[in-house]
Amino acid sequence: MTAPAVPRTLLRLHLSESPYGPSPHALRAAHEAIDATGVYPDPTRAAPAEAIAELLGVRADEVAVANGSDELVLLTTLSLGDRQRPGVTTAGTFPGYRICLENVGRGCREIPSPDVVALADALDTAGIAYVCNPHNPTGGVLDRVAFDLLVERAGATGTPLVVDEAYLDFAPPGTPQVLDYLGSGAPVLALRTFSKAHGLAGLRIGYAVGRADLVARLRAAQGTMPFSVNRAAQAAAVAALADRGHLERVRRDNALARERFRAGLAARGRHALPSVTNFLAVPVSDSAAAERLLEQDHGILVRDAGRFGLAGHLRISVGEAPQQRRLLDSLDAVAPLAVPLNTPSGAPVIKPTTLATDRLRLREVQPAEAEDLKEGRTAGLNWLGDTPGEGSQEAAGMLARAHAAGLHRPGWGMYVLIRQEDDLVVGGMGFHGPPQDGSVEIGFDLHPDARGRGYATEALAALAHRALGDPGVDTVLATTTADNVPSQRVMERAGFDRHPDRDGTLVYALTD
């Protein structure tokens, strides 16, 4: 099989970026700040620190603003706790804690996750501890009992407990957080960011909030790089905090999109780990290969969670509906699931085949979907013209009957043609059945508004070459009538040659 063409635009689902973007007020503030680019930014970061303190109900000396959470992780390793003792964190989490601890010479001990009791016990001999809550890359959260235990042990041992709360903005009300424990006297510190829910990832700004003496040490260490937070970032952060309506819309829309994504996975026999964030961790058999093939063959960036120590999972940003459908189709192609169907042998078959061209995505129709399509229903797809055309309905009927008779072979049925730019189904194309005597036959149907744009030629060439990649196929046939000149041109442009007519029907063939 020839490799599918990579779409021109990469779909970024690997860095938990917000598809909703920043607040318009934050953008405007950033643009205005850039006008004064010749002037150094405020090294005290006073405006964002005061805005954060006011919003959270804490003092300004309990807040430190920095160049994203990454700078704050480094600053904590440089300035907090007993530096003669190693730091401690959980295995299978954000690697930045371990990397920074090792680079500053403190060392790092990793506790198997999710053993919170063992992590709490480790604080007795640790110089500093790191916890990611909500967790990256699983998306889960600690319950109140677990959080209480960690804070209590931090207080008893004096070991600073640093909680990375980068994804807290997405979590439901009542999720345990460091702010709940600031009055306890325990050495706790939260790290937060404007990169996720606020959509300011490109500007790099985050903050720490915690016990004042811990924050003072962070600020002292930060003196080595006083201008690390640029003018645009500081201005945008202040404006973003003021626009509570935008943040609430992002939270609401993300929660809906996350559950839609989860439902889409379930509909294809997949699942994801529990998550309150803007990503899902999806199990696959080989996460490294799936990450590579999604980018290489489908132009989709995801994160192999094996990089975090969670092999066999992909961390995938929630994204919007069209992005989710493209990802799901492509995931079925690069990491297919074996699922039992009602075939005579009872042997497992593979989930839908998906191909990509420059402008289209060809996804195999499943038998259950065909039952809907043959009746003129949408099968949950967005069709140009709202409903499938007559040719697509007929093809779906053929697939449904073949499946009922136990004759359907996955990969050799019907495909929907999904336009990349708007995720609309512009038509159907597929095989009349599995290979026989080295040949297969293809038919196609396009919505009238999609004709004359080269879609049929593009799809026919892709599907025909996919067929010729099978060792049991050396000829792909397509037929039409003498008066259907547009179809004849499609076949010719796709590389098909004219063959002898068959019962008054024009026959075209593409050979290996």
Short description:
Helices cover 35% and strands 20% of the residues. It has helices at residues 24-34, 46-56, 68-79, 96-103, 116-122, 144-157, 212-222, 231-242, 244-267, 287-298, 321-334, 367-373, 390-404, 455-468, 485-493, and strands spanning 11-12, 63-66, 87-90, 108-111, 128-132, 161-164, 188-193, 206-210, 279-283, 300-301, 303-304, 313-317, 338-340, 348-350, 354-356, 360-364, 414-419, 425-431, 439-446, 475-480, 497-502, 505-511.
Short descriptors:
about 500 residues, seven-stranded mixed sheet, elongated, about 20% strand, alpha/beta
3D structure, described in words:
By secondary structure, this protein is of the alpha/beta class. It contains 15 helices and 22 strands. It has an eight-stranded mixed beta sheet, with helices on both faces. A seven-stranded mixed beta sheet has the order 2-8-7-6-5-3-4, sandwiched between helices. Strands 9-12-11 form a three-stranded antiparallel beta sheet, covered by helices on one side. 48% of the residues are buried.
